[in-house]
Structures are given as C-alpha cells and as structure tokens.
Design brief:
Keywords: Hydrolase
Number of helices: 22
Radius of gyration: 26 Å
Pfam families: Ppx-GppA, Ppx-GppA_III
Protein name: Ppx/GppA family phosphatase
Strand order of the largest sheet: 8-7-6-9-11-10
Largest sheet: 6 strands, mixed
Length: 533
C-alpha cells in the first residue's frame, strides 16, 4: 500500500464509499498502469501495478510516425491493461507523452485504442508532463519546501523542472529521450567514438538554451526519476555491494555516478554493457543516450549528487485525477507538504484496532522523552522517529499475535507505503517497533548489528522510551492520563497521574518488567510514583 498524496486532517466527507482508479502512462519506451483504491479517510491503497516495454517510439528517429509493429505492440498492451483495470471495476485515466505527442499518425492509434479497448487517451504537452511528474515526486519524497531541479529522462524526451512549495518556477521538455538519441546517433553496435561525440554535441546544443536559467534559479537539490535514473542507481548500488528493494530517496554522489558513466561508456557494445551488474537487460541498447543527458546536466550545474524518486508521471496522474474529483465536493485537498504523516496513517490502517492504544502510547512516550531532554540529548528528528514507531509498533498484529513485534519490524521495513523516509530512517523506526517488547537490542541480531555504532545507541535510547510508554498502557484502557519525569538525586522520578476509578497495577507491573533497557542505557534508576486524579 502507498499513501495518497494528501491525507485530510479531519475525517473526509467527500466520498462515503471507496473509489478505484486505474492510471495509465503511455510512454515512448514503456507503458505503466497503477490501480489504486481511494478510501473515505483520504488514504490510498495501491492494488496493483504493471509495466511493459512497448518501445512505441522505436523505428522512427524523427518520431514522425508510429510504425505498424509499434502500434500493434502498444494496442496489445493497452488491451491487457484494460482487462486488469476492469477486474477491479476501476475508472481509467490514460495519458500519452512524447511518441504520441509528435506522431503524425497519432490519431490512428487514438481511434483504434478507443474502438478496440474503450479507452480515451489524453495526449499531454511536455510542460504538462513535467507538472504531473512533479506532483508524483512530491508524494514520494519530503521535498515540498525545497527548491529542486527535477530531471526525468524518458524514451522520447527529457523534462526539466524547478519547483518549490508546489510552485513551478521553470519547466521545459526537450527532445532528448534515450530511445530518440539511440535511434539518431547510437544505433550502431558497437558505438563508434565519432557517433558518441556527435551525440554529446547535440545534447550540449539543446541544453545550452535552458541551463543558464536553471543556474540562475540555483536549485537546492537534484531529483531524478524514471528509467535512466533508476538504472544508474541500481548499477551504483551493485558496485558498492548493496542490495535494496526500494530506490526511493537514495542519494547518489557525483563521484559514484562518474564511475558508472565511465563503465557504461567504456563498454562500447551492447554485449559488454549487459555484463554490468545492475543494468536492466531491456535498457542495454538505450542506456548510453540517457547517461549522456544526465551527465551534461549534472556537470553544468555542478551538482554534488542527485536523489532518486520511484514516483513519477503515473503517481502524478493519480493525484491530479483524484484532486479533480474533490473539486466537485465541499472538501478540498491540503498541500503536499507532509507526506510522512500520510505514510504513517496508511501503514497504521493495517491494524486499525490499535489506534486508541497507539495514541495513548504516543502521548505518554513523548511526554517522558520531552521531560528528559537533558538526559538523552536527542533532538526533534529523533523525536519524530520515536513518534512514528509509537504509532506503528503494533501493526504486526494484523498478521498474528505470536511474535507480532517481529511482524511489525518486517511490515515497516518492507512496506512501500513508507515514503518520505530514507532507507536508514525506516530501518531505525522498524527496529524500535521490533524492540518495544520481549528482549531488547542484542549484538547477535543481524539487523541491529548492521547499524553504525551511533545508530545502535540511538535505537537503544529510543526503544527504551517506547518500552516504557507501551508498558504504561498494558491494559489498553488508557488508565494513565499523563506523566511528569524529573532527574532527582541521580535517578529519574516519574509521577504517573491515573484515573482513580481504575486499577493501575497491571501497568506498574509491566513497566517494572520493561524498564531495564532504560536503566542500562542511561545508567540511572527509574522509579514510578502513582497519583490518582
């Protein structure tokens, strides 16, 4: 599951029943479909997604026509996507980009698609494509408040956009797609040095009209999306010996990119390129063109790194479509400025029965954390990790009660919904949930052992707070109203204010059993004092 681009801060009355949408992106290289369910609370569940390499733009270097073979491949794929969407009873929105945008015979394809599948395809401009990609990226990375340069290298075109707080400061679409460049300059195998140089000069010529504007706007960071970017990232990670199921949020230093650029360009034939670990076999013939575009942009703006977004056009289509649904209601969508909250709510929905307990645990844990700032020395970022873990620590109960803390770890660590957090942050949050009960962190635990020493200490500190907060609601009756904690005479005295009509003995027993990690980590005793109210 993944979060909808904006979760409402109050119950949403716009839709009393679930709505299902299938978003289809007809790209020059690949067709994509995602099917999502919009719940009444504003969250999204992604039901399925598929991708097919169609190569709609192949065979025509000037993109003047879509060849018969390419048209047949595209329509066959579209029929499969229609069958998939219909199986979910989904409303369909289909958007086409560069190949159909430029083809003189595009109407033939559009008419056949509507006649043979019933799907009406919207052909969008390059600037509209860039806008939708920006909307997609804002759902997957916490960059709303940052001035970013978006670079999306597709098969037929490259989109560049500078955005900040949802506003577009600059955007352009250039005919510098990976397939287009391959068809025009790099089709010979092996690629000659002369053809490679011609391609470079062409890219420099096209980009030269736009890069001065980008340099003037001084974007804070570079975000890359789509196939070339993800392929480069996979190759970089393979070279480092790293395995990641998700690439979203991965930062690639410029030096690491240069190593892969050299490796790809030195492999002048497709056969040699396919031996590079991490390169998708379907991109062996077109990766050179994409890397040359990325290289020129990064060099010209002197970017120290770029950050990868798994979210792109199709997620932008989803947001834009659902936003249009809201225009006909009395409810509007807030800004795309806090995707972490949306991610937490989406994952927590896996175990909705735990909502009240999670709220109580969060309240008490953060009160303890805030009162003991001088003891733990941690800041707002670490507090956010702790708050997230408090909200999600019981989510593993959606699988089973037995070892549910381990199930919670697995769900948080592997959920595609945890957008807005880096892989390192997700690992820390997942481990906090893992250690909220039973045994605490141990050096023999592989996941804990893999952390940096400073992160191991952070997990110990934060997990010790979560264990106390969870213990103080052992009965899950919200008996404890609040707490105050102070350091006195070398120990922590914690005053617990509980409902006098309730019996707090189970909570006291529970925290007494779970306070050992806190005392060992901070080297101090922790004592509890009851105060009925």
């Amino acid at each position: 599951m993944l979060p909808f681009s904006q979760i409402l801060r109050k119950p949403n009355q716009a839709f009393r029943t679930e709505k299902i949408l299938a978003a289809i992106d007809l790209g020059t290289n690949s067709f994509h479909i995602v099917v999502v369910k919009l719940r009444p609370d504003g969250t999204l569940e992604y039901l399925t997604k598929e991708k097919e390499s169609v190569r709609l733009g192949s065979g025509s270097s000037d993109y003047a026509v879509i060849t018969d073979d390419a048209m047949d491949r595209g329509l066959a794929c579209l029929k499969r996507f229609k069958t998939l969407a219909d199986s979910y009873k989904a409303e369909i929105r289909a958007v086409a980009t560069s190949a159909l945008r430029e083809a003189e015979n595009r109407q033939v394809f559009l008419d056949r698609a509507e006649k043979e599948t019933g799907i009406q395809i919207q052909v969008i401009s390059g600037n509209e494509e860039a806008r939708l990609i920006y909307l997609g990226i804002l759902q997957g990375l916490p960059v709303f408040d940052k001035r970013i340069l978006l670079i999306d290298i597709g098969g037929g075109s490259t989109e560049l956009l500078i955005g900040e707080k949802g506003d577009i400061l600059f955007s352009t679409s250039m005919k510098l797609g990976a397939i287009r460049l391959t068809e025009k300059y790099l089709k010979k195998d092996p690629i000659s040095a002369t053809d490679l140089q011609k391609c470079r000069l062409h890219i420099e010529s096209v980009l030269s009209a736009f890069l001065p504007q980008i340099e003037t706007l001084k974007p804070f960071m570079v975000v890359g999306s789509s196939g070339t970017i993800t392929s480069v990232t996979s190759m970089v990670l393979e070279k480092k010996g790293e395995k990641r199921e998700r690439l979203n949020g991965t930062e690639i230093p410029i030096d690491s990119f240069k190593e892969i650029r050299k490796q790809v360009l030195d492999a002048e034939s497709i056969k040699k390129r396919l031996k590079i670990p991490g390169l998708d076999a379907k991109r062996g013939d077109i990766i050179v063109g994409g890397i040359l575009v990325l290289d020129e942009v990064l060099q010209r703006i002197k970017a120290p790194s770029f950050t990868v977004s798994d979210f792109a056009l199709r997620e932008g289509i989803v947001y834009d479509t659902i936003e249009s649904w809201y225009r006909h209601t009395d409810t509007s969508l807030p800004r795309l400025d806090n995707i972490r909250d949306k991610a937490i709510k989406t994952v927590a929905n896996l175990y909705p029965q735990g909502k009240k307990h999670a709220e109580t645990v969060t309240k008490l844990t953060l009160q303890l954390f805030d009162d003991l700032t001088n003891l733990h020395g941690l800041g707002n970022l670490e507090r956010d990790y702790l708050e997230t873990a408090c909200n999600l620590h019981q989510v593993g109960l959606c699988i089973s009660h037995h070892n549910y803390h381990k199930h919670s770890y697995y769900i948080i660590r592997n959920s595609e919904a945890m957008v807005g957090f880096s892989n390192a942050e997700i690992e820390i949050i997942a481990l906090l949930a893992r250690y909220h009960r039973k045994g605490g962190p141990k050096g023999k635990h592989e996941e804990f052992k893999a952390l940096r020493p400073e992160d191991q200490l952070l997990v110990r500190k934060l997990a010790s707070f979560l264990r106390i907060g969870d213990g103080l609601d052992r009965s899950e009756k919200s008996i404890m109203e609040r707490l105050d904690a102070v350091m006195e005479k070398g120990k922590v005295n914690c005053r617990l204010y509980y409902k006098k009509s309730e019996d707090p003995n189970l909570e006291i027993w529970s925290v007494s059993e779970k306070k050992d990690l806190f005392e060992d980590t901070f080297g101090t005793n922790l004592e509890f004092h009851l105060h009925p109210i």
